[in-house]
């Protein structure tokens, strides 16, 4: 089984994106500026001398100034701190976190930490607050007006994160980059967008990202402006641009949608789609001979959603969208279904990343005894999906 390539964590999907469905579940304090600002997609802005009823308007999360307990103890203790809990838009393995204090200079926290928890289902704020939390980023000094990048090596699948700041202050943005790991039981038997971020599709590589990111191609929802798509610079040679996407799992693509919405004078003239099946261990990044045609080179129209059904289906773990010669595409959608091998591979990655209690519970629900489930959970990481009960693969 071929492992997925892992680019720099900032190139991975932001699991804390509002587009994916992330939200602030709870915070103990946001008197100056709403904690929901942490999740805004655009970079934080600052407009000096712009005051509201609570003071200077800040584009971020800002808590009130902490005070001590009495005149004799006017300062907060070393442990007094504020926090905000974020439900990730998609559960997954976290590879890195960015705590950005942009524009907070005289009012940034002295230090901060990031914790994570896995809470199945649709928990209430009270259930989330009572969960067991694991340190991803231990308490660390913070600086003002700085994007602090923290790599994370914890292999566990998480659903929530908690940002803690000492003793108070403001943070502009929180980014939680990682690998989406959907529950394979939710996708079994369904047709869905195999390329979608919310299911684990990842834009692994692109020939050009001059004007905008290839990650926009498989982002949730429709693009509302040109800048929410993928656009390349103008080519001055005879080659073409492309994006390679790792699918949620090995699957059969049944229909393709190439959406050039908002690209009018800069849409590609044509596009094609190639597939690659890495189930046998090949590398799509280096094996030029392993690619096969899914969609032949097809004429595109500007500002148009092109919906194209395919006459045949062949299993693929990766696709490569080619545009000729250059230009912009708003979205790529690949309606299909997981193959048996694709679902098994996804199930294995998901199971190996679950917290132990959840892994054991999943095995019991699949028919194993408590003793058998505990023994199989302790044997992780499993190397083959055949070790999983049939109900999970």
TrEMBL record:
Keyword Hydrolase set for record:
yes
Q: Which residues form the Allantoicase domain?
A: 21-180, 200-337
Q: Which reaction does it catalyse?
A: allantoate + H2O = (S)-ureidoglycolate + urea
- Gene Ontology biological process: allantoin catabolic process; purine nucleobase metabolic process
- Which EC number(s) are documented for this chain? 3.5.3.4
Q: Is Hydrolase tagged as a keyword?
A: yes
Keywords, comma-separated and alphabetical: Hydrolase, Purine metabolism
Q: What class of enzyme is it?
A: hydrolase
Gene3D superfamilies in the cross-refs: Galactose-binding domain-like
According to the lineage, what is the superkingdom?
Bacteria
A GO molecular-function descriptor = allantoicase activity
UniProt-listed InterPro entries: Allantoicase, Allantoicase_dom, Galactose-bd-like_sf
The pathway to which it is assigned is: Nitrogen metabolism; (S)-allantoin degradation; (S)-ureidoglycolate from allantoate (aminidohydrolase route): step 1/1
SUPFAM superfamilies from the entry? Galactose-binding domain-like
Protein family (similarity comment): Belongs to the allantoicase family.
| Record NCBIfam families | allantoicase
Identification of the protein by name: Probable allantoicase
Please report the organism this UniProt entry assigns to the protein. Kitasatospora acidiphila
